Each structure stands twice: as structure tokens, then as C-alpha cells.
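[job 4471] stage=fold_predict status=RUNNING
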Amino acid sequence: MAPDAPLAKEAGPSKMRLRTILAIPLATLTAFAIHYLISKNQPAAETKLYSLFLATAFLSALLANGLQWLWALPRRWLTHISPIIAATILLLALWDLITTGFHLLPLPYFPGPAAVLQSLTNDRQLLLESAGNSLLLLFSGYAIGVVIALVTGICIGWFNQARYWGMPLLKVVGPIPATAWIPLAMVLAPSPRFSAIGLIALAVWFPVTMLTASGISNTRASYLDVARTLGANPAYLIFRVAIPAAMPSIFIGLFMGLGASFLTLIVAETVGVKSGLGWYVSWAQGWAEYGKVYAALVIMAAFFSTIMTLLFKVRDRVLVWQKGVIKW
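[job 4471] inference complete, writing C-alpha cells
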């Protein structure tokens, strides 16, 4: 029995490697075959562009599979990401089959992936400009909201007087959605852009303030007692003891604020700002160009998921001491 153990151990990785190598190419070939069979009634430009997209995915998978034999980094990355990419391509094939093939969903509200890709390519310049405007609004409002929230959260969590006056304000103003203030913001702000930034900052302010105050106020008394025994002054207690201890709660507030800021951004652009992805979606819907609507949603997903991933990376770097203590 013992000599057979190494063989079984080697068979596992080989089988997993074979799955990694074949997952994306097989999924791509499946999607291409489905599209080829059902795309006869589609415009030639859409069919050609979507076929080119699938061919690029197929060749990229073959290239990545070749690199993994020479470089360990692509091997680890492909082992992790190949099932996700293959599942995504198969979902595109299923989408193509439901919309273009069987017409189970009504047009023009549910175009196929080829039509969405065509819209994404045709309007790429306007989409990039809209994405740039949205990111500028998002970062401006998010940064302002985080700075104000950290200051108010630290004050409420540390100082009893600030907590006495600040907590009622949080309980009254905080639960109101930031989008509910849009009519008032459009009247008070000098321009729709400033009103959008203010609304995003307000959406971020409540969760970050609440969780920062909670983290500061729940700092272990033993940490503070030890620091005081060693002669720490109030500033040291706040910035070197309480804030580091509250960082896990602060990052939860940052993630919640980021999600709220996405929602507020799109709604504010839809009703006020005449630029950005929210405005683009509203404009495309007005012309019944639903392929463009889905193209904007793809851009939103790409940008917003990237921002969320970057925040996760920052969290992992700042809270590296939590590994092994708290399950991530």
C-alpha cells in the first residue's frame, strides 16, 4: 500500500492541471459553436466581432497554458481563475442561446452578447469619458466622506461630550438614504456636480462614522491601561492605541460606504449630473438602445469590482497582523 501512495499523490495534481488546461479552451469552443449555429439572422458586424472576441479568448488561453510550463506565477493564477473564466464564457453561451437562439426574452430589452459587445465597441469613446467622469465624482465624494467620517467617528468614540451630542445626530440623519436628499441637494448646491459629490460624501459618512466610533469606544481597557502605565499621553492613546485597535471596524465601514457610494453615484447622475455612467444608462434607455445599457453595466462592473479589489488589497496590507487570528 505504501508504494502506491506517491502515485496517487502525483495523479491528483496532473488531473487538476489537465482540467486547468482544458477548461477555458473547451468553454470557448462551446460558446463559438453555439453562436455559429444561431447567428445566421444576426448582423454580420456583430457576428464577426463576437467571433473575434471568442477567438481571442481561445488563443489567450492557449498562450497562458504554454506559459504555465515555464513560469510558476501563471500556473498558480490559472489554477485559481480558470474555472471562473470558463464558467463566465459558458454563461455567455447560455445568454446567447436564450436571447439570440430561442428568443425567450423580448427584444429590444434583452439583446444577445454579440449586440452588447458591438455597442461597447461602437461607443467606447463615450463610455470611457463617462467612466472617467463617474470615477472623478466617486473618488471626490468618497474621499471627502471618509475624512469627515473618520474625524467625527474618532471624536464620538473617544470623547464623552462628542458622543452625547453626536449619537442622536447619527441616529436621526444616518438611516435616511442619501438619495432621499437629492431634491434638497439640487436646490442648495451651486451645481449638479457639487450636489452629487455631497450626496456621495453623505452616503459614506454614516457607515464609516458609526463603525469607527464603535471600534474606538470598544478598545480594550487593558491596552489603554498598559499605555497609561508606560506614560502615554492622550494623543498617543488615540493615534497609537485606539485607532489601530479599531482598524478592523473602520475597514468594514469603508466597504459599506463604498457600496453605498456606488448606488448614490448612479442615482445622482441619473437625475442631475449630465455626464457619467448613470447619465449614459438613462440616455441609452431613452432611445431604447438596451445594448448600450448593458455595455454601461459591464463597464460599471469592471470599474467598481476593481476598486473593491484594491480596497481589499489595502485592508490585507494594513491588517496583516490579523492572519491566523481572524478567519478572512
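[job 4471] summary: The longest helix spans residues 234-271.
[job 4471] exit 0
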